[in-house]
Design goal:
- With 192 residues, the protein is an alpha+beta fold.
- The chain is 56% helix and 18% strand.
- It contains ten helices and seven strands.
- The chain has helices at residues 4-15, 22-29, 33-45, 67-82, 86-95, 109-112, 128-141, 153-161, 165-173, 180-191, and strands at residues 20-21, 49-54, 57-62, 103-107, 119-124, 146-151, 175-178.
- The strands form two sheets. A four-stranded mixed β-sheet has the order 6-5-4-7, with helices on both faces. The protein has a three-stranded antiparallel β-sheet with strand order 1-3-2.
Length: 192
């Protein structure tokens, strides 16, 4: 079992696309600098993260060339999905069963608020018509409509490379419902 703060740091490094130093990481995650330092030092020794030296500052990145890092990250994404509660859990159980998408990410107000108007979902697929029909079918049986954002994998990678804010936000705050390995492949392509 991985300690809670270690999980938080790994997920943060995975889902954020800018380089982060120890002060930024500890402040953002509300972990003491000392604890963050110990965790990052251990992760560095285990070859899960590596340090990028820029000037006097040390910045941390995930080692996405390591199979162990990839497996840890996949498990963290699965755990994040498993920990969904309430309406997010109800909708995710149904949405993740869509077969014609490589990657499905639930995002938006359903994850942050008790009151929400719709269900925002990113589908990485070439099957636009089948996604649209699938979302319409769910919307007929549920109280809130499912609003798909449909993209191809290469378009997602390009949007992330040009740092489009809306897509960066989806990746940072969304929960992967299907395609953890594809998510990591996309991240690896962007961060390369």
């Amino acid at each position: 079992m991985m300690p809670k703060n270690t999980k938080k740091i790994l997920l943060y490094l995975l889902k954020n696309f800018e380089l982060n130093n120890i002060n930024q990481i500890s402040k953002k995650l509300e972990i003491s600098v000392g604890s963050a330092f110990k965790i990052l030092k251990k992760l560095e020794e285990e070859n899960i993260v590596f340090v990028v030296n820029l000037g006097n500052a040390k910045y941390y990145k995930l080692n996405l060339e390591s199979r162990e890092t990839i497996k840890f990250c996949e498990l963290l994404l699965l755990e994040e999905k498993r920990n969904l509660k309430g309406y997010a859990k109800i909708y995710s159980d149904e949405i993740e069963n869509f077969k014609n998408a490589d990657l499905i990410i639930l995002f938006g107000s359903i994850l942050r608020k008790k009151e929400f108007n719709d269900i925002d979902v990113l589908f990485i697929t070439k099957e636009i018509k089948s996604v649209t029909q699938f979302c319409l079918d769910i919307s007929k049986t549920k109280s809130k409509p499912v609003v798909p954002l449909i993209m191809k994998r290469e378009d997602l990678i390009n949007e992330l490379k040009i740092k489009k804010d809306s897509i960066l936000d989806v990746m940072r705050s969304g929960v992967v419902l299907k395609g953890e390995s594809i998510f990591l492949e996309v991240i690896k392509n962007v961060k390369a």
